[in-house]
Amino acid sequence: MPATFALLGCTHPHSRGHLNTLRISPEVDRVWLWDPDRAAAEALSEHAGGKLAGVADELPAALRDEVEFALVCRRNDENPETVVAAARAGKHVMSEKPMATTADRLRPVLEEVRQAGVALGVCYPWRCHPAAQDLRRLVARGLLGALMAVEARMVTSQVRFRNPEHWLFSPEKGGGGVLHWLGCHFLDLLRYVLQDEVTHVSALTGVLGGCSIQVEDSAAVSMRWASGALGTYAAGYQLPRSPTGYYGAAYDTYLAARGREGTFAWQPTRADEVVRVESAHPEWASAPEREFRYTLETSEAYGGSYGLELIQRFIADARAGRPQIAGGEDALRVLEWLEAVYRSAETGEVARVIREL
Hints:
Layout: E1 3-8, H1 15-24, E2 28-34, H2 38-45, E3 52-56, H3 59-62, E4 69-72, H4 79-88, E5 92-95, H5 103-116, E6 120-122, H6 130-140, E7 147-157, H7 178-194, E8 198-206, E9 218-225, E10 230-239, E11 251-259, E12 262-266, E13 272-279, E14 289-295, H8 305-320, H9 328-347, E15 351-352
Parallel strand pairs: 1-2, 1-4, 2-3, 4-5, 5-6, 7-10
Antiparallel strand pairs: 7-11, 8-9, 8-15, 9-10, 11-12, 12-13, 13-14
Helix pairs in contact: 4-5, 5-9, 6-7, 7-9
């Protein structure tokens, strides 16, 4: 059955990307656009193609009966109230990450969604990347053994390429800096692949790029995972050569994990990606070192071809009543991690991420 969506929020850096996803998804038949700024919604509607159902500047008009799904894409401080409104209207919700500025702001939202009885997905599309799927299976089969070390890097274009006046660099509106906007993706991805949680962090953050902003443009985080593994995460708006804006920005990324039985290393965000895995596990005795190569299809969807898969899985799982591949509790875990990082950076002490596992 074709799906009708309401895209709620038309001024977010990812609004057009999400509209592209809905426009090219064969499961989506019609799309309503809503924003309090009608001119912004009208401007975005020029990119909707034949699936455009209408434009609204009043939220009830966009959450009409024919709409089954809402894709919420608003400023981080405004996002929670819009998710709640869509859930109360009985719509299954896919939310832009990180969903809110703080964990405390998100918790009552998750309760509202539970009471409404609708599905809640969060836009962490890296979980649908074929490399992530393969690595998750390898970890589950024990090919890495007990984890000892985890390493991550998310470095991208400097703030000067990204408009220092943007709300993303306001702690009140955005919540945080590079970790809040981009670091959240790889922390969530590692949680998914390793099936593990960070329990403690020790962090340093700074504003080093020469732009006057109120949130971090650089961060170095040490982590202890529930498994006992130790990890590091370097993130920053640091690359000196890049296109301007939020599409086609330069990236330097890396993910690795090392266990008693094996290791993997992956540099994401490349069109042709290679994951290198080594294992001493008996299953791999004939070929202990292997490479997995991925050539991703070009796609206009937010997050590329695996972003398109995310929205397709969201629709199917919501209708079937199955858990989402990335849900509200995942967004909460990431926000708890972010807040622990900022506490540690402010106090100079190790911070606990969550009370109980």
